[in-house]
Amino acid sequence: MKIIDTSIPQVLVIDPKVFYDQRGYFMESFSQALFAAKVFDTTFVQDNESKSRYGVLRGLHYQLPPFAQSKLVRVVSGKVLDVAVDIRRGSPTFGSYVAAELSCENKLMMFIPRGFAHGFAVLSEECVFQYKCDNYYSPEHEASIRWDDPQVNIDWRLPLSDIILSDKDKNHPLMENAKLFEYNENLYK
Prior knowledge:
This protein is mostly beta strands. It has a single domain (44-182), classed as Jelly Rolls (Sandwich), CATH 2.60.120. It has 2 helices and 15 strands. It has helices at 32-38, 167-170, and strands spanning 2-5, 12-15, 18-21, 24-27, 46-53, 57-63, 71-77, 79-86, 88-89, 97-103, 109-112, 116-122, 126-133, 142-144, 181-182. A hairpin with a 2-residue loop joins β3 and β4 (24-27). The radius of gyration is 16 Å and the shape is globular. The relative contact order is 0.24.
């Protein structure tokens, strides 16, 4: 696997080794030992999958301690713009985001550490999206910021008229009013 640094050092794009032949392809999508050695030493405890159509935007979501989550995300079919926003007050990159196009063709994955909000927009006709989490889902610890927060100013690469949001995602607070993390907070205790 090749690790690709981003503009925020903790957020990484992972390019897995893929073996192609006349039958198709084979790739190891995850190895705990390799991930711990090359990316980050954490243990994933829950896998999630969603299916969405073009224009669906999910985000920007995260969980608060003690249920903060790191995520390793990838696309099984289709294409998304995947986004991680630094929401750690005091961080040198606070309010900045990393965006990467993940698709079934490029097979790229993104690692989003704890302390970041996550979201994605579907750029293809349909998409199956998978993510591994290193902490369990806890509805009481759910938190979010608005997908269109002007302070973050994400270019979702979709016309505004094409964006499809859940009722819940339409009503998240702006980052300035949301519960966030502190940069020096140990989120992995």
